[in-house]
Automatic annotation (TrEMBL), chain A:
NCBIfam families: dhsB, PRK05950.1. Keywords: 2Fe-2S, 3Fe-4S, 4Fe-4S, Electron transport, Iron, Iron-sulfur, Metal-binding, Oxidoreductase, Transport, Tricarboxylic acid cycle. This is Succinate dehydrogenase iron-sulfur subunit. It comes from Nitrosospira multiformis. Residues 132-162 form the 4Fe-4S ferredoxin-type domain. Its cofactor is [3Fe-4S] cluster; [4Fe-4S] cluster; [2Fe-2S] cluster. The keyword Translocase does not apply. The lineage of its organism: Bacteria, Pseudomonadati, Pseudomonadota, Betaproteobacteria, Nitrosomonadales.
UniProtKB/TrEMBL annotation, chain B:
Residues 461-587 form the Fumarate reductase/succinate dehydrogenase flavoprotein-like C-terminal domain. The modification Tele-8alpha-FAD histidine is found at H45. It is an enzyme of class 1 (oxidoreductase). Its EC number is 1.3.5.1. GO terms for molecular function: electron transfer activity; flavin adenine dinucleotide binding; succinate dehydrogenase (quinone) activity. Residues 9-404 form the FAD-dependent oxidoreductase 2 FAD-binding domain. This is Succinate dehydrogenase flavoprotein subunit. It is found in: Cell inner membrane.
Amino acid sequence: MKFSIYRFDPDKDEKPYMQDYEITLEPADRMLLDALIRIKTVDDSLSLRRSCREGVCGSDAMNINGRNGLACITPVKGLREPVELRPLPGLPVIRDLIVDMTQFFKQYHSIKPYLINEDPPPETERLQSPEERAELDGLYECILCACCSTACPSFWWNPDKYVGPAGLLQAYRFLADSRDQATAERLDYLEDPYRLFRCHSIMNCTDVCPKGLNPMEAISRIKTMMTKRTI
Amino acid sequence: MTVARRKFDAVIVGAGGGGMRAALQLSEAGLKVAVLSKVFPTRSHTVAAQGGIAAALGNVTEDNWHWHMYDTVKGSDYLGDQDAIEFMCRQASEVVYELEHYGMPFDRLENGKIYQRPFGGQSQNFGGAQATRSCAVADRTGHAMLHTLYQRNVRANTQFFVEWMGLDLIRDEHGDVLGVSALDIETGEVMILQARATLFATGGGARIFSASTNAFINTGDGLAMAARAGVPLQDMEFWQFHPTGVYGVGILISEAVRGEGGYLLNKDGERFMERYAPHAKDLASRDVVSRAMTTEIKEGRGCGRDADHLLLKLDHLGADVIKARLPGIREIAIKFAHADPVREPIPVVPTAHYMMGGIPTNFHGQVVAPYKTGPEEVVQGFYAVGECACVSVHGANRLGTNSLLDILVFGRAAGNQIIEDLKRNTHHKHLPGDAADKALARLARLDSQKDGENVAQVGDMLRKTMQAHCGVFRFADLLKQGVDKISEVAERVKNTEIRDKSRVFNTARVEALELDNLVEVAVATMVSAQARKESRGAHARDDFPHRDDDKWLKHTLYFSEDRRLDYKPVRLKPLTVESFPPKARIY
C-alpha cells in the first residue's frame, strides 16, 4: 500500500517535504495506525502520537486524505492511494505528524472547564434527574483530539481569540449541567465578537468529529441561551 | 555534563487517575507540585476504563462497605492485605461522592442518585446474592473520571509537565528518594526534578504481553525506575487476564456487558459458565472466567474456524439498553469486530489487562521495603499509587471496578500523607553530584550504539515470550524455558539501536527507553511466577493446581540487581473488624 507522509524535523530539515512509503500490510493491520506502526518498524524516525489505539485517548488525530480523523479508528482498507497524511492543519508543527496543541488547550482552559457550584456539598451526591443528566450526552464524551477545531476556518484565522468548536462544546457541557451555577458568568465570557461569534456555522467540526459529536449544535444552543437572556 | 535542575515540594510521575487525584490534594493544600506525564493528562490509560467504580452506596440494593471488603478479600484469593482493603472499602462512598461534587457526570437513577450496576465478584451479605455496587457513567466511567480530575486540577492550577518521561529515580547514600531525572520529549533535554516527596503513579505494564487491553504507553516505567534504584517489586507473578478482549485485537469489552445481563457462549451455543460457577455464572471473578474460557478453547469448544475464541451475547438486552448503557462497547464492536451487538455476539478471548503486583506500599501510599528494621520499612520521600503500586488491595486477583476505586482512595491518601510528611521535612536533602549520571549514560549508550538490536523486533520477542510462557495457565517446563528466553531478551535489550538521532520529539528514543522498562517488568514476572509453586488467583499452575496457604500465603518480593526473591507475610489483620480467614473460594 502506498503512503505519502508529511515530514519535518526542525533538528535537520530546512523545510517540510512529503515522503513516499510503500509497505505490504499484514492481515492484522486493520486500521491506519497499524499501518503507520508498520512503517515505523522500517523507518523509526517517522514521528506521531498514539496511545490507546481504540479512539478514546485522542492522541493520533491527523489529516487523512484531506480530512481530519483518528488513525486508530480509520480502517486502512478503502483509503484512496497514495494515502496522504499531514499534521492537523492550523497548528504549528513540532515534528512530522505532531502538532503543538498549546493554543488549542489554552482555549479549552479559557472556558473554565470545570463544575462551578459554591454551595457546600451535601453528605452524599447532588441529585440530578436522568433527564437532566441526559442533557450532558453528546457533550462529556469529547476526547480533546482537536479534529474539530483544526478543521474550522474561523479557528485557523483566530486561534488566539476564537474559542473554537472543542472549547465551545465543553463550555456548553457545563452550561447544560443542572449542578453548575455559573451560567451568567460563562455567558458573559462568551459574549464577545470572537470567542463565540466567530462561528459561522460552516459545520466542518460536526462533519469530522470522530466520536460523532455535534459541536455545531452546542454552539447554536449557547447562542440561543445568549439571545434568551437579553429578552 | 551539567544537567538543569528544578525544585518542587512534590513531583508526581504519571497523570492518570491516581496521579491527578494526589496532585489535586497537594495543589489545593498550596504545595508546589510538578506532575510529569508522557502524554497529555486526559490521554492517560485511566481514560479506557469502562465499567465503573465500586462503592457500597446502596442506591439500588442494600449494601455496606464490610460486604465489599469481604468480596475484595475473597477476590484477592486471600493474598490481599486486609488492613488496606478495609481502608479502601470504608472510604469508597466518600471518594465517589467527592468525585460527583467535582462534576463527574454519573448516570442517574429515577430518584436522582448515582446509577449502579452489578459486576463480577460483588455480593451482598458475605457471599450471598449479587450486589449492585458499580457506580457508572455509561461504559465510559474512566474517561469521565479522568477528564473530571483533569478539570478539577485546572481549577486548582496544578502544574503539568506534558510529554515528559521519567528516566530514573534519584536516591542518596541513605536510600532516601530525592526526585527523578526526566526527559522533555519535545526538546530532548534531560532535567533533574528535585522534590521533598516523589510519587509514582505510572500505571501498569501489560504491554509485556502480545495480546493486551493496555495502551501503548503502559510500559511499566515506574516499576522499572524503582527496580533499577534497588526497590523490590511485589507479587509480580499476578497478572489479570480480562475475560473479554476483542478477539484478534485485544481491545477491552467491559465486564459491564455481563453486569447488564450479557453472557458467554461456546461453539455449541452453551452458556458454559453455568458449569464452572453455578452460583455467580458469568459474573464470577475474572480469573475464574478466564480459566473457564481457556479450558473451553483447549477442549475444542471454541468458536470460529480455528476454534480459538468464544462469543459474548448481549442482543437479548435489547437495542435501548445497549445504546443507553453500553454505547462505547457497541462502537468498539462495530469498528473492531465488525459485529453490531444489537444483532450479533462479539468474538472475545481472555486478554492481559491488569498488573496486581507493583511497587510495595502501605495504605498511606508510602513505599515500603525490607531494610534494617523489617520487611516493610518506609523508603523516605518515596510514594506510589495505582496500578504501579502494590498496597496490596488486589492480592492475587482484582475485582472489576476496584481499580478506579483504588486510584481515588490511595491517590487521596498519598496526597494527605505527603502533606503531613512535608510539614516535618521542610528542606530538600542534598542532591548527589552524580544524580543524573545513570540516566545520561543510558541515553548516551543508545545514541552511540552501532550494529545493535532493532527495538521493534526485540520488543516483539519479549511480548511473544511472555504470552507463550506466562499466560492464563502456567506450566513448569514453559516457565523454566521462559526464564531462559526472557534473560536472552534482556541481554539483547542492552544493545538496542535507534537510527533516529534527532533531539526533537524522538519517539524512537522513547520506545527504546520503554523497552528498557518493559524488560524489567517481564523478567520480574517470569522469575516470580516460576518460583511460586501453587495456584492462587490469577497465577494458575498446571503442576500445582491448588492454593497452598501453609507454604504460600505470602507476598513475593523481587530484587532486580541479582534477581533475588524474598517473601513477606500477608497482613491478615484488618484495622477494626475481624479478619476473614482463608477458605475455599467458590463462586
